[in-house]
Each structure stands twice: as structure tokens, then as C-alpha cells.
Amino acid sequence: MEDYHVAKFVQIQEHELGLFAIYDGHLGDGVPAYLQKHLFSNILNEEEFWVDLNRSISKAYERTDQAILSHDSDLGRGGSTAVTAILINGQRLWVANVGDSRAVLSRGGQAIQMSTDHEPNTERGSIEHRGGFVSNMPGDVPRVNGQLAVSRAFGDRNLKSHLRSDPDIQDTIIDNNVVSNQEAVDIARKIKDPLKAAKQLTAEAVRRDSKDDISCVVVRFRR
């Protein structure tokens, strides 16, 4: 078992960050253990973290891979995939991945894939351009140079000239900007004055980052 993970919340200044990751190692646990310890700290230490998180993640992934390669005598000759998720203040989610570990978001019960599977067949052009090849042996999955079943990974010095380690990155807003019918009733019935109830419902829609025009009428029926 060469998998490592991260699942924690940290407080940075006035921001709450949720940090979640899976690191799937191969040929030893040296690289995934290194990622568990260093990748998020490298991302958070990027100067542009609060300005350009996309660029910060990309730079940190690259810098981490270079550090792994420079320490491969200690970490071993293996490598690791990675899928990382950063949740900022419970509202903005950033997901990055290298390899085939997958992140899936449930939005209203609908599954949304937030990562990209980096499989040798789908990136055959890049591998061949770098001087490698993709094997397709019967009964086996496609592999880079007949060895690795992913086209991007951290580490793997013996295949690095044919592999990529730059991540695919996706981000999305995590919110409940639609007030359900029951929530609207629950809010309105707590306030006797219908005008105040309408204002409360409008304020709730704004709080949930509604980007649409917001109008609300509350009618209270007499018994």
C-alpha cells in the first residue's frame, strides 16, 4: 500500500482553507510521503497564492517535482500521482491533478468530474513527441514505454523525459445560491411583518452570492 492522503482545515489570517489530497505512489512510498509533507506547503508559500491561485498551483507542482527528482537517491526511483483540492472559506474549490486519481463533486446530486484522467492513450502525441512510446499489450492497460499506466506523474526519473508533471486545474463556486421552497417558507414564517420577511429572503439570496436580479414578495394570509 503506497497511498498517502491529506484531509485537514487550516486557518491563514482571516481565511479558512480545507486541504484534501490523495497521493497514489508506485515503486515505493518515498515520493507520495514527500508529497504529503511538502506539496500543500509549497502551494501556500507561493507569493501569488491570493492573487493567481491557478498559477501558484502550477508553479508549486513544478517546483515540487524538481525537488523530488533532486532527492531521488533518498526517495527512491518510483513516483506518484496526485489529486489535490483546496476549499477557500467554504465557497471556492480548486482541484488540481497529475495522473489518474479522480476528484468528483456532487452538485444537487449530480456527479461532476473535477479532474482529468491522464492516461497514456489520451496523451500519446505528447509522449511520442518526447521520444517515448505507448504499449498496448493484449490483456494489459496502455503503458508509457511498457511500464507506467499514467502519462503524468511526480518523480519517475527513468521515464521523466517522456512524462509530464504539470497539473490540470479546475475551479468552481461552492454555494447554495438557490433558496429551496421549504427554506423560503421557513425563513418567511418566522417573521410576522411580510415586508421584513421579504427583505430577509432578499438578504439571504445576496448572502448566497446570487448573481441574478433579486425581487421578492411575501403575502401573509389572515386566518
Task: Provide an overview of this structure.
With 223 residues, the protein is α+β, with helices and mostly antiparallel strands. It folds into 2 domains: 3-173, PPM-type phosphatase domain (Phosphatase 2c, domain 1); 176-223, no CATH class. Helix content is 29%, strand content 26%. Strand 7 (134-135) and strand 8 (143-144) form a beta hairpin. Helix 1 runs antiparallel to helix 2 (53-70). The longest helix is centred in the N-terminal third of the chain and has 18 residues, at 53-70. It is elongated. It starts with a strand and ends in a 16-residue tail after the last helix.
Can you describe this structure in just a few lines?
The chain is an alpha+beta fold.
What low-confidence regions span 5 or more consecutive residues with pLDDT below 50? none
Share of residues in helices: 25-40%
CATH topology of the largest domain, which one?
A: Phosphatase 2c, domain 1
What pattern of helices and strands is seen along the backbone?
EEHHHEEEEHEEEEHH
In the CATH hierarchy, what is the class of the largest domain?
A: Alpha Beta
Identify the notable features of this structure and list them briefly.
hydrolase; 6 helices; PPM-type-like_dom_sf; protein serine/threonine phosphatase activity; magnesium; two-stranded antiparallel sheet; 2 domains; 26% strand
Blueprint (SSEs and pairs):
Blueprint lengths: L2 E10 L2 E12 L3 H15 L8 H18 L1 H4 L3 E10 L3 E7 L5 E4 L2 E4 L10 H6 L4 E2 L7 E2 L9 E2 L12 E6 L7 H8 L5 H14 L16
Antiparallel strand pairs: 1-2, 2-3, 3-4, 3-9, 4-10, 5-6, 7-8
Helix pairs in contact: 1-2
Cofactor: Mg(2+); Mn(2+)
Catalytic activity: O-phospho-L-threonyl-[protein] + H2O = L-threonyl-[protein] + phosphate; O-phospho-L-seryl-[protein] + H2O = L-seryl-[protein] + phosphate
Organism: Hevea brasiliensis
